[in-house]
Amino acid sequence: MTLKELSEILLPNVEHDRKYYEELYPERNLPEGAIVTRYAPSPTGFVHMGALYQSYISSKMAHQTGGIFFLRIEDTDQKREVENSVEMILKDLKDFGFNPDEGVTLDGEKGNYGPYTQSKRKDIYQAFARDLIEKGLAYPCFLSEDDEKEIRDQQARVKARIGIYGDWARSRFLTTEQVLEKINNGEEYVIRLKSDGNFNNKITVKDCIKGNIEMPENDIDVVIIKSDGLPTYHFAHAVDDHLMHTTHVIRGDEWVSSLPTHIALFKAIGVKPPKYAHIAPISKIENGNHRKLSKRKDPEAAVSYYSKLGIPKEAVKIYLATVANSNFERWFDANPNADINDFKMEFSKMSRSDSLFDQEKLYNISRNYISKLPATVVYDSALEYAKEYDHELEELLVKYKDYSIAIYNIERERKKPRKDYIMYSDIKNQTWYMYDELFNPEELEYEFANINDSEEIKKILKLYLEKYYNEEDDESTWFNRMKELSDELGYASDMKAYRENPDAYKGNVADVSIVLRVALTSKAQTPNLYNLMSLLGKDRIAKRYNYFIQK
Fold first, then answer.
1. Spatial separation of the C-alpha atoms in residues 235 and 247, rounded to whole Å
2. What's the CA gap between 255 and 55, in Å, rounded?
3. What span, in angstroms and rounded, lies between the C-alpha atoms of 53 and 51?
4. pLDDT beyond 90 at 48
5. Distance between CA 434 and CA 527 in Å, rounded?
6. What's the chain's Rg over C-alpha atoms?
7. From CA 338, how far away is CA 341, in angstroms rounded?
8. Model pLDDT, residue 356
9. How many secondary structure helices (H) and strands (E) does the chain include?
């Protein structure tokens, strides 16, 4: 029996051969130097910050070279699959503006190198496995779980490396007749690579980030096709990245240990491996030690956490860029109004050691980013956020569009704009007192400061309404009237005079303005009081002040 005939028995019902698929997926027609990258998650849950970081780098490196960034779903380990994971992954990527050029989408798939879901590529993997069997580079393995446990126990007793290799690879030495007998007896089997490697030899892989990595050559007869006919991650990775013409595999450095296996598989297939770039993990400090940001332990590891907070996706990208390239912050400081897509990312500027996840830095970037947006953009973004996460706010924004935009525009169009909002979930917390639907004075705690005597507060408010408030005043006139009010009540209108002789006054104009501010909003710190009063208008101001006067 020939090896070709044996391959057909081992892997029956394979529709096409390897040659067919090589012709089906020709070389990509891209500019010279273009990079093809991918994000290839398993559908086991949400996208975490480390994965988003990897996606950002992959997308950026591809697009700045005129290349392709595609999304492949690696679902061959179906026992680990979590329901609706693919939809979760696609939504998380979309929320942060990572829209692959090819691959799996919410509407299906797009691109000429699909299917982009591995479970739909079974025939492709089996065609390549058949090819390896025909060339004597792969074989059926009949070891049961008990057999493999026995081998591991024996290896542990003699202090040998754990794995199926050399003399431990018992099925490797079966004759064709023995193989056929086992198949006829209904024994389960997997297909293993027949490794020609020698563990005592070294291979050197030039990593785009880490430089030259020297490791022992692979001599393990790794499984390439499981008993259910689906490939292992390692084999699918090699076949897919070859046929999809991936030029650079950008992934976490926990995969460095797999390099010898992957290099061996590309060698067996007979093709040049892609270039590898192993990025250092994003970590946090726990009990004085660095550890990788964890999907299980850290709620902030999930990118959906930031969507729910309303962190702008652009701010997240800026943060990821600061982590990715050591020279980005310097570039961004010098080009504060530039599109970050104009920044040229380089592998050589990426850290070889882990980067601490700095949530406060992300928040600060977000605060600065929102402060520079036009009020109309803040409104649109807040409304988009509210539609999904805060329907009460959504109703107010729809009902009071122009009014809300005016609120967001207070102290915005200036050299140093206010930075009240870290995220869009802050919007209601920072502006609720501007909406009568949310302002109930009987349920509020008022933050009066130096002036807290109720009769004095009433006196200030009553005199202000009766004599000094005029909604036609510009800001300069309004402030002069505040000074006049202060003088009449015995408070210093001149801060210099107050500092020189504080005992001569009840207080100062700032104390009076705080009374007016707190009675209006309940807060001692707010945006510009004149602007707030202008938006609230005479009747609403009088209503809020009269609440104190009458009470």
1. 17
2. 16
3. 5
4. no
5. 11
6. 33
7. 8
8. 84
9. 22, 14
Q: Which of 235, 242, 206, 203 is nearest to 219 (CA)?
A: 203
Q: Is the dihedral of CA 181, 184, 185, 190 positive or negative?
A: positive
Is residue 248 within 8 Å of residue 34, measured between CB atoms? no
C-alpha pair distances (Å), 505 with each of 463, 490, 509: 18, 6, 10
Q: Amino acid identity, residue 198?
A: N
Instruction: Report yes or no: 548 and 458 within 8 Å, Cβ to Cβ.
Output: yes
Average pLDDT on 32-60 reads 91
Domain boundaries of the chain, sorted by first residue: 3-15+122-279, 375-434, 441-550
3-15+122-279 and 441-550: identical CATH topology: no
Strands (E), 61-107: 68-71, 102-105
Q: Which residue has the tokens 């101001």?
A: 541
Q: What are phi and psi of 526, to 5 degrees?
A: -145, 175
CB 321 within 8 Å of CB 315: no
The architecture in CATH of the region 3-15+122-279 reads 3-Layer(aba) Sandwich (3.40)
- What's the topology of domain 441-550? Arc Repressor Mutant, subunit A (1.10.10)
Per-residue pLDDT tens over the stretch 229-275: 999 999 999 999 999 999 999 999 999 999 999 999 999 999 999 99
Are 72 and 38 in contact by the 8 Å Cβ rule? The answer is yes
Q: What is the pLDDT of residues 153-194, one digit of tens each?
A: 999 999 999 999 999 999 999 999 999 999 999 999 999 999
